[in-house]
Every structure is written in C-alpha cells, then in structure tokens.
Amino acid sequence: MHIDEQQRFKKVRTGIYIILILAYISVYFHRMAPAVVSAELMSSFMTSATTLGSLAAMYYYIYAAMQIPAGVLADTLGNRASVTAGNFVAGIGSIIFALADTIELASLGRFMVGLGVSVIFVGLMKNNSVWFRDKVYGFISGFTMLMGNLGSVLAAKPLSALLNIWTWRQIFIAMGIMSLVLAVFTFLFVRNRPEDAGFPSVREMDGMTAHAGRHQHWTRDLFKVLKNITVWPGVWINFGMAGGLFAFAGLWGIPLLRDSFNLSRDEASIYTTITLLSLAIGAFFAGWISDRIGLRKPVILVSSAIYTLSWLALIYIPWQPGALAMFLFMLIGLTSGGFVLTYPCAKEVIQPALSGMAISLVNTGLFLGAAIMQPLFGWVLDREWDGKIINGVNQYSWQNYQHAMLLMLAFAIIAFIAALRIKETQCRNLTIS
C-alpha cells in the first residue's frame, strides 16, 4: 500500500472504531447506572432489595442469553448490521424505562436495553480482530476496555452530580436519543472488513495470505466452538471475576456505603468511581503487559489471585471510609482488569473466522455471573433485614452486607480455579501454523 492509501486506511479504521466505542460507552453506562439511582428506583417503584436486584439484572439476563447469538450475528451478518439494530433497540428501551410508571414496564425497558446493547461488545471485538494486527490484539482489547469503562465512570460520580440538575428519567431519555443517533452513524459509516471499504486485509498488507473464511453452516461452526474445551476456562473467569465485580459496582457498592457508613450518594459514588477507573486502567495494562511479555496465563493468574485476596480483605479487615477503603476499592477494580485477556485467549485457540462466536461464548460468563449475583446479593440482604426503612428505602446493616459479600468471595475463587486451567497461547493463534 502507498503512504496515501495507508493514511486513508487509518482514517477509516479510526472513524469506525470511534463510532463503535461510543456505543460501547453507552453499554457500560446502562450497566452501572442502577447503583447511583438505586434509591430513586426504590422510591419510584416501592421495591425491596430483591426486586431492585431483579430489575437491574434484567439487563444481564437477556445480555447473557444473547451472547452466543451475538457472536453468530457478528460472524455471519457482520458487526455493521448487528450494532445498528442493537443501538436502535437499546435507544427505544432506554426511553421506555425512563417513562415507566410501573415496575413491569420499567423491567420491559431494561430488558430492551439489555437486548440492544448485547451485540455491541462482540461486534466491536470482531471489528478489532479484522481491522487490527494480531500482535496488538491484547493491547487493543485492553484499550477498548479502558475506553468502554468511561461509561462506567460517567455512571458513577458524574451521574450522581447530574441528578442534582436532571431527574433520573430525563437522563435515560437522553441516553436513549444518543443510542438512536449512533444507530444512524453505524449504518452510514461502519464497514465489516477492510475489504468492504476497498482495502486489502491487514494480513495481506503484511505480505501474508488472508485468513480463511467460513465454509459451512453457522450451526456447525458454533458446535465446533462449544466443544473446544480450551475456550471454557475463560467463561468461568468472566463469570467469577468480571461478573461479580460488575454486579457489585453496578448496584450494591453505593448502598453498602450509604447504609453501613451513612455516606451520601455523592460521597459513596466516589468509591465506585475509583473501582471503575481502576478496572479500566487494570484492563489496559493487563493487555499491554501480556503483549509485551508474549504470555497470557501469568497475567490472568496473578490478577485473579490478588482479586480473591482483595475480597477477603474487604470482608474481614476493619475499615472505615477513607484512605484504606479507597485502596481496597481500587485494588478490586485494578486486579479484576485481568479478565480482559480471556478474549484474546478465546480468539487464539479457535479459527479466526469463528472469533466472534468464541469471544461471545466467553463473554456469556460475565453476564451470567452478574445476572445471578445481583438478585442473589439482594436476597441475602432481605433474608436478614430487620425491617428498617428510611424515606421509603430499605436500610441494611454492615453485617447484612458482610454476609452478602461472601458470595463475591466465592465467585472470585471460581475465577481463580478457572485461571489455573487457561491455555497459554503465547499471544498467537494456535490454529495457524
């Protein structure tokens, strides 16, 4: 390729990436926002912790169920069609959620948001696998997670501040409109492969042959992915580490600090913001370190081990809001970032043409874990609740939360055990000689 053509390629790739990453930021916003608006939701719909957990987890239920279909869509129709449709459905769902006057209608809106955004991450990672070189896939995965987590950060302290100006309903209407605009941009500007934009594949740019395409029905390809046992440890790492953390930071972290230590919503949101920022940074550096040392497994093992120990500390070390608490909230976020390497590991043990299905299978673990954890955490709180209510919001004790956090520890242990079983790929696709 001539220099001018290379510059045009980079410009097109960057434009596509920006559109998809903006959509991905909205994914994280919707995922984490219930933690900040938990009191408003409890008050608006007069819910218990269990019901609130089920409402928040509605997003995760459909998201988890849609991950394998999302991978099939990415590998067959392509990410342009799937992400366009996903943004449209999520936008309508967010507006329904904002206008709901019953818990049932709010659940429908939340369901539609989860359905819509469920295809965005897999579409983005599939896009990265064909628009970027294999040798930087760990880095670009970490960078993608870093950028996506901006949505988590926006759904913490900034959202808490915005609630002093707008109502939670106005905010979700605005998010719905943004998703609808992104649907239009995706349709107009995103392309599935470099070849669709008039370029050779990235492998051909480097003087190699292009990856082989799919040559059989997608159901056979999917079965091939499902029976590949080297993909499955990544599912359980995501289930225990990322799923647990997103359930905690996305719903229960702020109520814990509010009920146990009498912090205001704004004060408590600082701690979850620290967790989510640390997660973004941890994911970025996990990908970068892995690519630099040419190994995946050691980074995943170390991060999952420290993550497990961090939950032990958060449960059993006496702490109060302040420096120690901020350090512990930072540590669980920073070390959980190692889960991002499950995506390169999945991509590198399967044929490149099936990378979307492999990534989606691994990603299913994350949302299955969060979908189970959010209401289960609430059920433990309700089981030992003493009936205390303030301003229409159930109040739970530190001991209630401590018992519920034992679930987080159990999930972390599952992730560590799975990390022991991950297959080392040395940052290359094992199916290509």
- What is the count of DSSP helices, taking H or I runs of 4+ residues? 18
Broad CATH class? Mainly Alpha
Estimated share of beta-strand residues: under 5%
CATH superfamily: MFS general substrate transporter like domains
User: What is the number of E strands?
Assistant: 2
Low-confidence stretches are none
Radius of gyration: 21 Å
User: Roughly what is the average pLDDT, rounded to an integer?
Assistant: 88
Helix content: over 70%
| Structural domains: how many | 1
Query: Helices and strands: which structural class?
Result: mainly alpha
CATH architecture: Up-down Bundle
CATH topology: Growth Hormone, Chain: A
Largest sheet: 2 strands, antiparallel
Major β-sheet strand ordering: 1-2
Shape: globular
Tell me the distance between the termini.
26 Å
The SSE string, one letter per element, is HHHHHHHHHHHHHHHHHEEH
Explain this structure to me?
- The protein is mostly helical and 433 residues long.
- The protein has helices at residues 3-36, 38-45, 49-76, 79-99, 103-117, 120-131, 137-154, 157-162, 168-189, 202-205, 218-226, 232-261, 265-293, 297-316, 323-336, 342-347, 355-383, 398-420, and strands at residues 389-390, 393-394.
- The protein has a single domain (11-197, 218-420), classed as Up-down Bundle (Growth Hormone, Chain: A), CATH 1.20.1250.
- It has a two-stranded antiparallel ribbon.
- Strand 1 (389-390) and strand 2 (393-394) form a beta hairpin.
